[in-house]
Specification:
The chain is mainly α. The protein has nine helices and three strands; from the N terminus they run αβαααββααααα. Strands 1-3-2 form a three-stranded antiparallel β-sheet, with helices on one face. α3 crosses α4 and α7 packs across α8. The longest helix is centred in the C-terminal third of the chain and has 44 residues.
Length: 231
Protein backbone atom coordinates (compact mmCIF):
# COMPACT_ATOMS: atom_id res chain seq x y z
CA UNK A 1 0.00 0.00 0.00
CA UNK A 2 1.63 3.21 -1.16
CA UNK A 3 1.98 6.03 1.30
CA UNK A 4 1.36 4.06 4.49
CA UNK A 5 1.71 0.80 6.39
CA UNK A 6 -0.37 -2.23 5.51
CA UNK A 7 -3.24 -2.34 8.02
CA UNK A 8 -4.25 -5.91 7.29
CA UNK A 9 -3.75 -8.69 4.75
CA UNK A 10 -6.50 -9.03 2.17
CA UNK A 11 -5.62 -12.73 1.59
CA UNK A 12 -6.80 -12.40 -2.04
CA UNK A 13 -10.43 -12.42 -0.91
CA UNK A 14 -13.24 -9.95 -0.75
CA UNK A 15 -14.20 -8.63 2.69
CA UNK A 16 -17.07 -11.03 3.42
CA UNK A 17 -15.09 -14.09 2.36
CA UNK A 18 -12.06 -12.91 4.35
CA UNK A 19 -14.12 -12.45 7.52
CA UNK A 20 -15.71 -15.89 7.09
CA UNK A 21 -12.28 -17.46 6.66
CA UNK A 22 -10.89 -15.81 9.81
CA UNK A 23 -13.96 -16.74 11.85
CA UNK A 24 -13.56 -20.34 10.74
CA UNK A 25 -9.86 -20.39 11.64
CA UNK A 26 -10.46 -18.84 15.06
CA UNK A 27 -13.32 -21.24 15.81
CA UNK A 28 -11.03 -24.17 14.99
CA UNK A 29 -8.25 -22.63 17.11
CA UNK A 30 -10.45 -22.36 20.21
CA UNK A 31 -11.71 -25.89 19.66
CA UNK A 32 -8.34 -27.61 19.14
CA UNK A 33 -6.01 -24.96 20.70
CA UNK A 34 -3.59 -25.48 17.80
CA UNK A 35 -4.08 -25.31 14.05
CA UNK A 36 -1.81 -25.30 11.00
CA UNK A 37 -2.39 -23.01 8.04
CA UNK A 38 -0.46 -20.62 5.84
CA UNK A 39 1.66 -17.90 7.43
CA UNK A 40 -0.47 -14.91 6.27
CA UNK A 41 -3.71 -16.56 7.42
CA UNK A 42 -2.16 -17.45 10.78
CA UNK A 43 -1.03 -13.86 11.38
CA UNK A 44 -4.46 -12.45 10.56
CA UNK A 45 -6.29 -15.08 12.61
CA UNK A 46 -3.93 -14.32 15.49
CA UNK A 47 -5.19 -10.73 15.64
CA UNK A 48 -8.81 -11.88 15.88
CA UNK A 49 -7.98 -14.56 18.47
CA UNK A 50 -6.17 -12.01 20.67
CA UNK A 51 -9.19 -9.72 20.43
CA UNK A 52 -11.50 -12.55 21.52
CA UNK A 53 -9.41 -13.41 24.57
CA UNK A 54 -9.36 -9.73 25.54
CA UNK A 55 -13.15 -9.78 25.34
CA UNK A 56 -13.18 -12.87 27.54
CA UNK A 57 -11.09 -11.13 30.18
CA UNK A 58 -13.48 -8.16 30.21
CA UNK A 59 -16.39 -10.54 30.89
CA UNK A 60 -19.22 -8.10 30.22
CA UNK A 61 -22.54 -8.47 28.43
CA UNK A 62 -21.25 -6.47 25.46
CA UNK A 63 -18.13 -8.62 25.20
CA UNK A 64 -20.22 -11.79 25.32
CA UNK A 65 -22.47 -10.57 22.51
CA UNK A 66 -19.46 -9.62 20.41
CA UNK A 67 -17.84 -13.03 20.95
CA UNK A 68 -21.08 -14.80 20.05
CA UNK A 69 -21.11 -12.94 16.74
CA UNK A 70 -17.58 -14.13 15.89
CA UNK A 71 -17.70 -17.84 16.72
CA UNK A 72 -19.43 -20.16 14.26
CA UNK A 73 -20.48 -22.41 17.16
CA UNK A 74 -20.96 -19.98 20.08
CA UNK A 75 -22.77 -22.46 22.33
CA UNK A 76 -19.61 -24.57 22.45
CA UNK A 77 -16.86 -21.97 22.53
CA UNK A 78 -18.24 -18.91 24.33
CA UNK A 79 -18.44 -20.77 27.70
CA UNK A 80 -14.84 -21.95 27.23
CA UNK A 81 -13.70 -18.42 26.41
CA UNK A 82 -15.30 -16.88 29.51
CA UNK A 83 -14.31 -19.65 31.94
CA UNK A 84 -11.30 -21.80 31.09
CA UNK A 85 -9.40 -19.35 28.88
CA UNK A 86 -10.30 -16.32 30.97
CA UNK A 87 -8.86 -17.97 34.07
CA UNK A 88 -5.78 -19.12 32.16
CA UNK A 89 -4.91 -15.64 30.87
CA UNK A 90 -6.30 -13.53 33.71
CA UNK A 91 -2.84 -12.39 34.89
CA UNK A 92 -1.13 -12.43 31.48
CA UNK A 93 -0.88 -8.88 30.06
CA UNK A 94 -0.91 -10.05 26.43
CA UNK A 95 0.56 -12.53 24.00
CA UNK A 96 -2.15 -15.16 24.36
CA UNK A 97 -1.34 -16.82 21.03
CA UNK A 98 1.83 -17.82 19.21
CA UNK A 99 2.64 -18.29 15.52
CA UNK A 100 5.43 -20.72 14.68
CA UNK A 101 6.84 -21.14 11.19
CA UNK A 102 6.98 -24.69 9.85
CA UNK A 103 8.05 -26.35 6.62
CA UNK A 104 5.69 -25.71 3.71
CA UNK A 105 2.98 -28.34 3.60
CA UNK A 106 3.37 -28.56 -0.19
CA UNK A 107 -0.36 -28.11 -0.64
CA UNK A 108 -1.10 -28.02 -4.38
CA UNK A 109 2.69 -27.92 -4.86
CA UNK A 110 2.73 -24.14 -4.29
CA UNK A 111 5.25 -24.26 -1.41
CA UNK A 112 3.29 -21.58 0.45
CA UNK A 113 4.87 -20.52 3.77
CA UNK A 114 3.13 -22.48 6.52
CA UNK A 115 2.74 -21.90 10.24
CA UNK A 116 1.17 -23.23 13.41
CA UNK A 117 -1.15 -20.96 15.37
CA UNK A 118 -1.60 -22.05 18.98
CA UNK A 119 -2.90 -20.85 22.34
CA UNK A 120 -0.01 -20.45 24.77
CA UNK A 121 0.10 -22.15 28.19
CA UNK A 122 -2.31 -24.80 26.95
CA UNK A 123 -2.04 -28.58 26.61
CA UNK A 124 -0.67 -28.20 23.04
CA UNK A 125 1.88 -25.46 23.74
CA UNK A 126 4.70 -26.46 21.40
CA UNK A 127 7.35 -24.24 22.99
CA UNK A 128 6.56 -25.75 26.40
CA UNK A 129 6.99 -29.26 24.96
CA UNK A 130 10.21 -28.34 23.15
CA UNK A 131 11.64 -26.81 26.35
CA UNK A 132 10.88 -30.04 28.24
CA UNK A 133 12.63 -32.07 25.53
CA UNK A 134 15.64 -29.77 25.71
CA UNK A 135 15.88 -30.26 29.49
CA UNK A 136 15.77 -34.04 29.04
CA UNK A 137 18.50 -33.89 26.40
CA UNK A 138 20.74 -31.63 28.49
CA UNK A 139 20.30 -33.80 31.57
CA UNK A 140 21.29 -36.84 29.52
CA UNK A 141 24.41 -35.02 28.35
CA UNK A 142 25.25 -33.76 31.83
CA UNK A 143 28.95 -34.41 32.29
CA UNK A 144 31.32 -32.48 34.63
CA UNK A 145 34.09 -32.56 32.03
CA UNK A 146 31.90 -31.01 29.34
CA UNK A 147 29.87 -28.67 31.55
CA UNK A 148 33.02 -27.08 33.00
CA UNK A 149 34.21 -26.22 29.50
CA UNK A 150 31.10 -24.10 28.98
CA UNK A 151 31.96 -21.99 31.98
CA UNK A 152 29.86 -21.28 35.08
CA UNK A 153 26.13 -20.80 34.50
CA UNK A 154 24.54 -17.40 34.83
CA UNK A 155 22.54 -16.41 37.91
CA UNK A 156 19.25 -17.10 36.13
CA UNK A 157 20.42 -20.52 34.94
CA UNK A 158 21.64 -21.35 38.45
CA UNK A 159 18.25 -20.47 39.93
CA UNK A 160 16.48 -22.66 37.38
CA UNK A 161 18.88 -25.50 38.19
CA UNK A 162 17.99 -25.17 41.85
CA UNK A 163 14.24 -25.24 41.13
CA UNK A 164 14.39 -28.04 38.58
CA UNK A 165 15.97 -31.39 39.33
CA UNK A 166 19.38 -31.81 37.78
CA UNK A 167 22.21 -29.52 36.73
CA UNK A 168 23.92 -28.50 33.52
CA UNK A 169 21.20 -26.28 32.02
CA UNK A 170 22.46 -23.72 29.55
CA UNK A 171 21.65 -20.02 29.90
CA UNK A 172 19.49 -20.18 26.76
CA UNK A 173 17.49 -23.06 28.26
CA UNK A 174 17.05 -21.16 31.52
CA UNK A 175 15.58 -18.21 29.63
CA UNK A 176 13.23 -20.55 27.75
CA UNK A 177 12.09 -22.07 31.06
CA UNK A 178 11.30 -18.62 32.40
CA UNK A 179 9.27 -17.74 29.30
CA UNK A 180 7.13 -20.88 29.27
CA UNK A 181 6.46 -20.95 33.03
CA UNK A 182 6.16 -17.25 33.87
CA UNK A 183 2.35 -16.99 33.57
CA UNK A 184 1.43 -20.69 33.61
CA UNK A 185 -0.20 -21.83 36.88
CA UNK A 186 2.25 -24.13 38.70
CA UNK A 187 4.58 -23.60 35.77
CA UNK A 188 7.74 -25.19 37.12
CA UNK A 189 5.81 -28.13 38.60
CA UNK A 190 4.01 -28.71 35.30
CA UNK A 191 7.30 -28.53 33.42
CA UNK A 192 8.93 -31.00 35.79
CA UNK A 193 6.01 -33.41 35.32
CA UNK A 194 6.39 -33.17 31.55
CA UNK A 195 10.13 -33.73 31.82
CA UNK A 196 9.58 -36.77 34.05
CA UNK A 197 7.07 -38.17 31.54
CA UNK A 198 9.54 -37.73 28.69
CA UNK A 199 12.33 -39.32 30.72
CA UNK A 200 10.16 -42.36 31.45
CA UNK A 201 9.31 -42.60 27.77
CA UNK A 202 13.01 -42.39 26.87
CA UNK A 203 13.91 -45.07 29.42
CA UNK A 204 11.18 -47.38 28.10
CA UNK A 205 12.40 -46.79 24.56
CA UNK A 206 15.97 -47.62 25.53
CA UNK A 207 14.86 -50.81 27.30
CA UNK A 208 12.91 -51.89 24.24
CA UNK A 209 15.97 -51.16 22.10
CA UNK A 210 18.16 -53.29 24.39
CA UNK A 211 15.67 -56.16 24.29
CA UNK A 212 15.52 -56.02 20.50
CA UNK A 213 19.32 -55.99 20.22
CA UNK A 214 19.54 -58.92 22.62
CA UNK A 215 17.03 -60.92 20.56
CA UNK A 216 18.96 -60.15 17.39
CA UNK A 217 22.25 -61.27 18.95
CA UNK A 218 20.69 -64.51 20.15
CA UNK A 219 19.23 -65.10 16.71
CA UNK A 220 22.64 -64.55 15.07
CA UNK A 221 24.34 -66.92 17.52
CA UNK A 222 21.70 -69.53 16.82
CA UNK A 223 22.20 -69.19 13.08
CA UNK A 224 25.98 -69.37 13.48
CA UNK A 225 25.78 -72.56 15.57
CA UNK A 226 23.21 -74.20 13.30
CA UNK A 227 25.11 -73.28 10.13
CA UNK A 228 28.08 -75.68 10.48
CA UNK A 229 25.82 -78.51 11.69
CA UNK A 230 23.53 -78.06 8.69
CA UNK A 231 26.57 -78.12 6.37
Amino acid sequence: MAGGALKYRHLNRKSSHRQALLRNLVTSLFEHESISTTWPKAKEAQRLAEKLITLGKKNTEDSRRTAQGIFYSPLEHVPKLFTTLRERYLHRPGGYTRVLRIEPRNRNHDQAPSAILELVDGPKDMRFALTAKTIVRERARDDPTTSSSRGPPSKEAHQQQQQLRGVGLRDFTAKAIRKVTRFRPDGLEALEREVARLERFQEDKEREEEKRNLRERKERRKQETEGPEGG
